[in-house]
Amino acid sequence: MTKIIQMRQVSKVTNGHEIISDLNMNVNQGEIYGFLGPNGAGKTTTMRMIANLIQPTSGKIELFGQLLTPTSYDIRKRIGSLIEYPILYENLTALANLEIHCEYMGFHDKKAIRDALELTGLTDTKGKLVKHFSIGMKQRLGLARAICTKPELLILDEPVNGLDPIGIQEQRELFRMLNREYGITLFISSHILQEIEYLADTIGVIQNGKLIKEVSMTQVRSQPSDYIEVVVTNSKKAVFVLENKMMITNFKVMDGRTIRIYQSDVTPVDVSRTLIENDIGLEALIKKELSLEEFFLETIHRGDTHA
């Protein structure tokens, strides 16, 4: 499969502080890649390096099979990006903003500009100046600017910021359409993990500047999805009962009091009754389904190093 983004041992040092450390990443052409990590993990810095807005201190980045350098102007024309808050011409209209962007990108297609405004729901803004736009409208305009030049790679950093639930759903459908109908590769960061779960083919998890996990959503979904979570007063005694009384082997102790049981042939009723019969205090018991959010939190908690 063709790699549209390849990062090899990429590091970034700013003011003596290493923000990104030996990062390796692969993004396949035509996929939606969800980029996850806690605040300050290095997501935006990584995206800015991929967009060629800043340069890595060491390592190499290849886009479309070509080494990215400060003078990779032709590569830059094949990328659309919305990173952090969009910087716009506040005293101009949405249309004028896109016309100026296309001019300096060397892209001359008036219909593409109209299409971008329509796709992002901004066709009715007409003569309204951007300074009078809501935060959500400015976010939409930033996205329109990113897609109006028909990029092959779209880099989106928190693209649904400022949008209401209806707007988020509309953007989700737009991203799917851009990917499926136009063949655009999307590289998306979002703190709304449910949106990434809906969209992504692959996810990468970054923590403290290191990519600690890179896995397909198919692999995530293939993991045991249903589990029983119990909170007990004595986890050591509970583990003994699970192993020796119930013959359960597929479980995980999350902390001093919480245990997750992944064994499919065990019911909550069986677990509850057996623990109580063995004088183990049971404070909570619930059957859950593993979500991307839980997968992400577990990955961060473990600090996986086998990306």
Query: Low-confidence stretches at least 5 residues in length (pLDDT < 50)?
Result: none
CATH H-tier superfamily of the largest domain: P-loop containing nucleotide triphosphate hydrolases
CATH architecture of the largest domain: 3-Layer(aba) Sandwich
Shape: elongated
Number of domain units: 2
| Helix vs. strand class | alpha/beta
Q: Characterize the main sheet.
A: 6 strands, mixed
Q: What portion of residues belong to β-strands?
A: 25-35%
- Straight-line distance between termini: 19 Å
* Number of discrete helical segments: 11
| Overall pLDDT score | 90
Quote the CATH topology of the largest domain: Rossmann fold
**Helix-strand pattern:** EEEHEEHEHHHEHEHEEHEHEEHEH
Q: CATH first level of the largest domain: which class?
A: Alpha Beta
Q: What's the Cα radius of gyration?
A: 23 Å
Pfam families: ABC_tran
Domain ABC transporter: 5-233
Family: Belongs to the ABC transporter superfamily.
Organism: Shimazuella alba
Summarize the structure.
This is ATP-binding cassette domain-containing protein. This protein is α/β, with parallel strands linked by helices and 307 residues long.
Notes on the protein architecture:
- Keywords: ATP-binding, Nucleotide-binding, Transport.
- Belongs to the ABC transporter superfamily.
- GO terms for molecular function: ATP binding; ATP hydrolysis activity.
- Residues 5-233 form the ABC transporter domain.
- Pfam families: ABC_tran.
- This protein is of the alpha/beta class and 307 residues long.
- The chain folds into two domains: 3-221, Rossmann fold (3-Layer(aba) Sandwich); 224-289, Alpha-Beta Plaits (2-Layer Sandwich).
- It is built from eleven helices and 14 strands.
- It has helices spanning 43-50, 73-76, 94-105, 110-119, 135-147, 165-182, 193-199, 217-222, 235-244, 268-277, 292-302, and strands spanning 3-14, 17-28, 32-36, 58-63, 66-67, 79-82, 153-157, 185-189, 202-207, 210-216, 226-232, 251-253, 258-261, 282-289.
- It has a six-stranded mixed sheet, with helices on both faces.
- A hairpin with a 2-residue loop joins β1 (3-14) and β2 (17-28).
- α3 packs across α4 (110-119).
- The chain is elongated and about 75 Å long.
